[in-house]
Each structure stands twice: as C-alpha cells, then as structure tokens.
C-alpha cells in the first residue's frame, strides 16, 4: 500500500481476531480483520462526506480503544492526516497542538471534549461505530505520495512547547516492511497475541499497533494500564509478546512484591521494553518474571521511528542492555567523527522531514538528512 492506513495483513483469515480490547474490569470486545477493513472503510467514507479537503488534519483524543484505532486507520485511508492528542496534557498544550497542526475535526472521548478549543468540530469516539453504521464505505484506500504526511505526532514538550513531527506515508510503510523482515526476534508466529498497555497517543504503542496489524497478529489492548490488569491480561490471553515502557514493568514487579500472586507467564516468548532507560536490575527482574522470554531493550524516537536497530545479521546473541545491530538501509554514526562513543546520528527513509512550523528547531536537529538524537551511545 502507498497509504499507511492500508498496511493491513493480506494473507490472514478475515475472521481472525485483529484486536481484543480489555477494560479495567476485564471485560473484552473482539474485532476481526474483516471488522477492521469494514469499519475503517465506513469511517473513511463518513469523514469524506464531511467535506474535508485532501490532507486535512484530523485529531484523535481518548483512552485506548477499538474506536481509537479504527478511527486512526479510517482517517489515513480517507486521505487525511491523523493527529493523536494526549488527553493528560495541559489544556493550553492541547489548544496549542490543535492550532499548530491546523486540526479541523477531532474524534474525541466525550469525557475529554471540554479540553478542546471552543469552535473545533468534534465527533464522539465512543459512539463512532453507531454514527458511521449507515454511512457508505469509501470507494477504496486513497493513494498517497511517499512525502505526504500520514500522522503528526507531538514530542513530549519536556523542554518548552511540544514540536510536531510529520510521519510520512512512504517512510512508515518502509519502516513497517523493515520491522516485518526483522521481526523474528519479536514475533514468533504471524498469529502471535501481543499485549499493549501504553497510550496510543505515543509512538511506542501506535507503531506497535500498526506492526501487529501488518504482520497478521492479534493486539491485546488495555484501555487503561494498571499493574493488576496488565499481569492478568498477559496470563489470561496467553500472550506471546509483551510490550511496555520500563516504568510499567517496574510497577508490575512492585505490585507482585506487595501482594504476591502466582501467574502463569509460560506463553511469553518475547518482551520488548523501550521509550526510557533500563537498568541491569530491571532487565534481570523482568527476565525472571518471564522465564521463557527473550527480553530486549528497544530504541527509537518520534523523529526517527523505531526501525533503527534489530537482530545481528549473523545471529549473534544480543547483550542484555544492547539496542541491537543497525538494520539494513539504516545509517548510524556517533557524531561527525567518532567511532567509539558519542551522540547517535541516524539517517533512514523514516527520519522526519523536519518539525512542523519550526524551521529553527529543524536546523538544530537535522544535518544533511541525519537526525541528531541527543542520545550518547557507544
């Protein structure tokens, strides 16, 4: 597909579970790959009927849910650009993102609608499937050029206002292909159940959802993370792959210390941590919690995407805290001249073209296509 919204596994049973949404009480909703195709096409058709121009920016703000992901795929399939917005952000930051990205419509959980600027068009996420039920499905996934923006993600804003990062269709279809080819250490089978608890407004969970969907796996999605729900879902759904930011796994380990409970995690074959630093102690504790799993430290930024490091081409075992080996067609170096230790620079097809409306910040971050990450590595 030339459109990231159309990057859906083709050789998969249409009735296979694509998504299992699990709420705080353990109640589930299951959606098949056929449901994904049907509902995303209806959402795309509904949005096109709103008269939005090609390339219009459409926001998504809410808890993790089936509707969130279906809306995400539908927005892109319709030829629009999705703008995920974190509902935990300060109100002034949410208003800034809506203005900065020129968001025209926001698909939003009703409980967070009051956080949006007055006058911005809203569509309620929780009733989205009922809203589009009578809509005519789009005639097909809109063809996109490689440089067209599929998504605009915003950085955390930990140092000043957040910066918009356009993710292009061409770069991210390429990134999915790279991760699929190198997915042997991550997915064990195409039907793997993959546990996801991080917020979909962040790169980590959003890219994972796309990867699972392109691979033909089943995403077990927690609407909201708690240590208990995370541990319970991992056991109950016999997940083969577990993904989380280190803080979540540390919270799960702490919960087990405070209230020892026996769980059966023998099904888990791969654990992927990323998005923040990992200690040797946490790596050892997670490895002990999932005794049959390979535990990997993954790296990626909003600006580079996650398709940077992977397994060693000769099958060499990855050291415990290593990020892996650079993927084919990904260039990495340590600053301009260093070859032992220095600031990691990355150049690939998935690296952002530049920050949205921030030429000054783009000039600081990019050099001849290289993204200067700010992370010191050796």
Description:
It is built from 10 helices and 19 strands. The protein has helices at residues 33-48, 66-77, 91-100, 128-131, 169-181, 203-215, 227-236, 246-258, 280-289, 359-365; strands at residues 17-22, 28-32, 57-61, 81-84, 103-108, 121-124, 149-154, 164-168, 193-196, 218-222, 241-244, 270-273, 294-297, 309-310, 325-326, 331-334, 342-347, 366-367, 370-377. Helix 8 packs across helix 9 (280-289). The protein is globular. The protein starts with 16 loop residues before the first strand and ends with a strand.
Features:
single chain; 378 residues; alpha/beta; 23% strand
Strand content: 15-25%
H and E string: EEHEHEHEEHEEHEHEHEHEHEEEEEHEE
Query: Overall 3D geometry?
Result: globular
Number of H/I helices = 10
Evaluate the radius of gyration.
Answer: 20 Å
Provide a short characterization of the protein structure:
With 378 residues, the chain is an alpha/beta fold. 29% of the residues lie in helices and 23% in strands. The protein is built from ten helices and 19 strands.
Topology:
Layout: E1 17-22, E2 28-32, H1 33-48, E3 57-61, H2 66-77, E4 81-84, H3 91-100, E5 103-108, E6 121-124, H4 128-131, E7 149-154, E8 164-168, H5 169-181, E9 193-196, H6 203-215, E10 218-222, H7 227-236, E11 241-244, H8 246-258, E12 270-273, H9 280-289, E13 294-297, E14 309-310, E15 325-326, E16 331-334, E17 342-347, H10 359-365, E18 366-367, E19 370-377
Parallel strand pairs: 1-10, 3-4, 3-5, 5-6, 9-10, 9-11, 11-12, 12-13
Antiparallel strand pairs: 1-2, 7-8, 14-15, 16-17, 17-19, 18-19
Helix pairs in contact: 1-2, 7-8, 8-9
